[in-house]
Structures are given as structure tokens and as C-alpha cells.
Amino acid sequence: MGYKTDNKTQYTDDYTPDKDMSRMISSAIAQKKKGQKTKKRNKNIAIGCTIGGGVILIGAIIYFGGWITSVGKFLPNTYIDGVDVSKMTLKEATAAVTKGPAADYLSITKKDGSAERIPLDYFDYSYDISPEIKSFYDEISYSGWLGSYFKTTEYETVGEAEYDSEKLEYILRNTVWGTSETADARLDYKDGEYYIKSEVYGDIPDINILVDYVLGEVEKGDLSLNLSESGCFTEPTVFSKDLEELKAEMNEKFNFVITYDFNYTTETLSGADIYDWITVSSDGSFTVDRSKAENYIAGLAAKYDTFMTTRQFQTTERGVITMSQGRYSTGQYGWWIDQEKSVDKLLEYIENGQSVTVEPMYVTLDTGYCYEGFPSGRSADGDIGDTYIEVDLSAQHLWYYQNGELAFETDQIVSGKATDPSRKTPEGFYSVYTKSTNYTMKAADGSYSTKCSYFMRISFEGIGFHDLSRGAYGGNTYINNGSHGCINMRYSEVQKLYDMVERGTPVILYY
């Protein structure tokens, strides 16, 4: 190394001019290489920056370009009511979504597959979903256009239909939707045998369910409907297979006839009649409808009862007269079916399942009196017959006809005192209620007590035919000197009549 002193350069042992020059040259070379490396590094950075900036620029161009081109349209993967409206304008999307009326009528498919078409203007129909589509359009955020390629956006419209529901309901209720009612399988009766009538899957709907269904769907804008989806059709609950055992049982159990005997004619109740009274359950059991049995017995009563009716009677001397029954307490003659007891008995006959010939149950009083008339008296023409006692109270004349022949007559009788309403013999239709000998007659109020040898009672009040010894018979005796209501007769005549007349014989009294 050298250093300067006295303006002269001095050198040490380790430094010489040649060495110094070598070092300078080496240093210069090193500096140059260093500068070259720095320039190269800076150049690489510049190139990298240039490329990165380009990529960003291109991305920005694409993003903002996509944004710009998406504006005014629905984003990709957008569906409205299942319709793909991707990249459609509002107008295009509104036209594409056709949930509204696709035709000018409401189409309703019936059960048989045919369609009933009801023009929309028949019930003032209109439907608009464009406001909803516009609201979906207004919600679009175009900044997210790129993400729409990786997700699906779905919208559902509710819509708002406007129509006259009263007009539509009137149309629905006055349209023929089917021709057959749903029916359970049932037993039927023909030619003396029960058979199964198959179930029916009807096509006539429950109109209330149909109306509710159609109005509800139209409200939502649906104009193509199928009634099979409405639940308005009922299904059978009893099927043919359910009735096989019952059919066999019915053919065995109900193969009988109930015959009612009315003396001169009969009424029969067959299996066919009885079947109409039967309700079959889904488990195969059955019950008899009592009301049907009541109606049947009531029909018999209306046809054959004669008690308390007005009758025509062929008199011996005065021709045909029309006369009422008489006072309820006294005029007891005729037939009177006890309907309640007859129904009970009929149900018993059905339960037993045997053919029988019977009489109806007739009303029977606590006293034992039965309203069953006089067996031989009933005919198609009346209920008196040709065996009866006839008394013309005005003429004071009595006739007894037996089997159409005059068997006895007399004009020697005295009836109730005509001038005293409480003792006057009441006219009407009666019967010989009881027959007694050595009978004591007593007034209800105890005003008299009289014994007779023969007494034939004809009313519940105690009126009857009996012997009574008195000074005069017949003529006008009864007007002022009549009995207390009975028919007084001579001993010999009442004895004869008593021996001839049966209990129950009709008695007709008239003025």
C-alpha cells in the first residue's frame, strides 16, 4: 500500500503500480456484471407486470361485457313456472310463460274420458300473470350474471284470475257429468231365487265436491282439469264377492211365503217383497227395516179394517140405508187390526223363515173383547154377511136372518124410551157380545135392578135383548114407556132367539 508524503508517493512492500492496476480492472469488470444482472432483473419484472395487467384487463373486459350484454334480459338458468326464460327480455319471457289461458275455454275431463268445454266468456274469465313476471324481472341483479351459470333460479307465479263464480257454478250444476250412480253390490230376487246384482262404479259426481274443485283450480288459473283428480266420485263399499255366502243363506232362509187370511180372501208376502225391506251390511249381515213392515201392515188395515166405518145396509122393508158405526162406547162391531202387535208378529215370522198362513193380530180389550168381526160376515161387499139381527126401531120390528134365510121375526118388542135421550136406544152396528141366563141387570147409578131369564148383550154399556114381562109390546109403546135402552121381548120369543143366535152375530139397529 502506498501513501503520499512530501509530494512524493511512497510504496510499501505489498503494493506496486502493477497490482493496483489489476485490481482496478477486476473491480471495473465486477461492477459491469453487477449492472448487467440488475438490468435483466428489472426487465423480467416489467415483462411480468405487463402480462398480469393484460390478464386483468381482459377479465375486466369480459366481466363488464357480460354485465352489459345481460342487462335487459333474464339471467342464464332462470325458470318461471318451469319455463326456461334464460336471456329472454321481459316481453319474450311473458309470452313464453303460458300458465294463463292457452285456449278460449275451460276444459273439464269427465270420468269416461270425454271433455266438457265451457267458453271463458260464459263466466267472464280473465287471467294476468305479467305483473308477477315484471316483479321477477325487477329483482334481477346483473352484477351476479357470471354466477348464474353455476346455479338455477326458479320462480313460481300465483296469478290472479278474475271471473264470475256464480255464473260458473250455475253452469257446473246444470251440466250432465255422467249417467250412472255408484251402487253397492246387492241381492235381488227373481223367479223365486235371490241373485247378486254387481256393484256399479258410477260416473255421476258429488256435485258439491266438483264445484269446489273447479272453482279452486280456476282461481289458480288452471283451465285444463280432470275430474278423476277431484275426489268427486264415490266408490262402492259392498262388492259381489262379499255377498256370495249371504245369497246362499237368503235362498235357504227366505224361500217362504207369509199368507194373511181374511176369511173371504188372502194376502201373501213373498221373498221378493221381504227383500225390499232388508239392508245388507258390508260384512254380509242384514237387518229388516221395521218401518217397511209397519207400512205393509198399515196397508192391510186401510184395506180390511171396518170398525168405525160408515156402511150401506140393505134393510128388509126400507131399502138401502147408509149408517155410521154408532157411539164409540156402544158400536163395537167390525174388524180392527192391532198394527203394532201385527208388525211384531210379522218380524217374528220373517226371523223364523217358515211359510205360514195366519190372521192379523186384532185389537183386544182388557175385558177380552176382540175386534175380529163375525167370521162369516166378511166379504168383498161388506162385513155383515147374511147372518144377522136387524131391528127397525121406528117400526119396533125385529128380523133374524141365518145364512140368508129369515129364521125368526117379531114385532112384539119395546126399545128404549124415545122421549128420554138418556134411555133412547142408540142406532148403530153391534154384535152379540155375551149370552147369559138368569142374569141380573143393574143400572150404573143403582136406580134399578132387574132379573131376566135370557140376556144377549150387544154393547159395552149393557144394552141387550132380554125377556121382560110387561103389559104391552110393539107399536108406539117405546115412545113414552120404553126401556132403559135394551130391547124387551116376550119370554117365549127371546128364548127361541137365544137358542138360535151365536155369539158375535152382527146386530143392526136403525130408526
Structure description:
The protein has 511 residues and is an alpha+beta fold. Helix content is 30%, strand content 24%. It has a five-stranded mixed sheet with strand order 22-21-20-29-24, with no helix packed on it. Strands 23-28-27-26-25 form a five-stranded mixed sheet. Strands 4-3-8 form a three-stranded mixed sheet, with no helix packed on it. Residues 1-18 have low confidence and may be disordered.
Total of DSSP H or I helical runs spanning 4+ residues? 11
Question: Roughly how many Å is the radius of gyration?
Answer: 59 Å
Q: Structural class per helix/strand content? A: alpha+beta
Mean pLDDT score, rounded? 86
Strand order of the largest sheet: 22-21-20-29-24
Distance between the termini: 191 Å
Percent helix among the residues? 25-40%
Low-confidence stretches: 1-18
Shape descriptor reads rod-shaped
Give the DSSP E fraction (strand runs of 2 or more residues).
15-25%
